[in-house]
Amino acid sequence: MSTILPFSIIVLSLTVIIVIIVRKFPQLALLDLDTLPDLEQQKKKKELVKKRVEKKAEKKRASLAKKMAPISQKLKNFQLVFRKYVGNVEKTFIKEKQKKQKPQTKEQQKQQKQDVRSLMQFASKALEDGDLVAAEKSYLEAIKLDAKSVDSYRGLADVYQAQDQNNEAKETLEFILHLDKDDDQSMVKLGDIYAEQSKYEKAIDYYQQAILINGIYASRFYKMGEMMIKVGQEDAALEAFAQTVELEPHNPKYLDKLLEISIIVGTKDQAKEVYDKLRLVNAENKKLEKYKMQIDQMPSYPR
Prior knowledge:
This protein is mostly helical. It is built from 14 helices and no strands.
């Protein structure tokens, strides 16, 4: 802060000086114009001086803007560090508060749960409406009341993702896993973030963990299959997409993907079987004709 304040004062002072020069120009210019013999010459000289002053003022503004750029960036960096510091202090405060708190009565516990629920409902609605500031504030208030509220942390992570603050989102989701190492929803969300960042192997790792804990969701196998293609593991992708169809046999999106990867891998019998299923489920699929030609061109023997 000691670096920014003096510079801000200098900027303000220079700005004030420029404004004074421009505003008071007619009076200042007249000091030199008294010696001119002719009113026309006075006007011309007045215009020349005015242009000169305005040009200098413009140069000053451009120079100040250039100098302010790194200072502004430092200020942004400082704000980010400060925000993280406040977050750490807040977490410490919550922990210390928990240690010092007296045991709650059943009535107090009931009221606290109700307050947390109300804050989370408000935060969820604010997030849905795009009011990210209000959503973040309410989720943090809920966490202050219940520092182990996994759902509040999940909501907070959603807010950070909506703000494109993926690092904060990851930290929040990883903190959830410290509270509950088997929280498969947080694992999927972490996988999604790493997938967006093109860190495919890391994404696969989190998707695999989530599937091992709870493998009833076809979408998780689908995401896994997509990542497997990204890292060149088509055979593994085939197995993942086959699982999606097993879980949701009539989903045209999953059938389409399984058919596509079956053709790539070269499993003709499987491709024909999936083709027939896709045709029944989605006869209007524009890719069916192309798929039929590709299947016909595939060798009959296994790859």
